[in-house]
Amino acid sequence: MGMTSDHQRFETLVGALLPQLYRYAYWLSRNRSLAEDVVQEALIRAWKSLDSLRDDSKAKSWLFTIIRREHARHYEKRRLECVDIDTVEVAETEHSPVEADAELDDLRRMVSRLDVAYREPLVLQVVVGCSCDEIAELMDLTRAAVLTRLFRARQQLMKMADAPAEAKRSQNGMP
User: Rounded mean pLDDT of 73-88?
Assistant: First the structure.
């Protein structure tokens, strides 16, 4: 294939998926700047190995796998810098958080507390919009295993969401 047709093929494969790739990288890293770096590096790797993609219908799982590996590679090659907490200034916010934002933050915290085996398929489905079959292919699992992990992730989230309400009731002496 010539350079122009390779370029067109790559643009076609990546173009529609780019927002999903960024969302996935962001959920993996929880850092916008790092997510952008991971996606950039992943796209470079994808471009260099475009010939290895034999079936364009598999591009989505191929690209998500590259994102996942690039994210892991980031932590292998870099040690997290330690920060002296006594020197860090905490920014004061003038506005109190909006109730919806607080609920979203609570949900993000609960999702981040899930075991990665449950968190990853849930994020791929809910945030990225992958189907169960795509998740199965991406994570090298059976469809049944993906469905089981999604079910368990939701069960754990419901338990976490119920825990604060139960704690409040027991503090107030209610059953």
Answer: 53
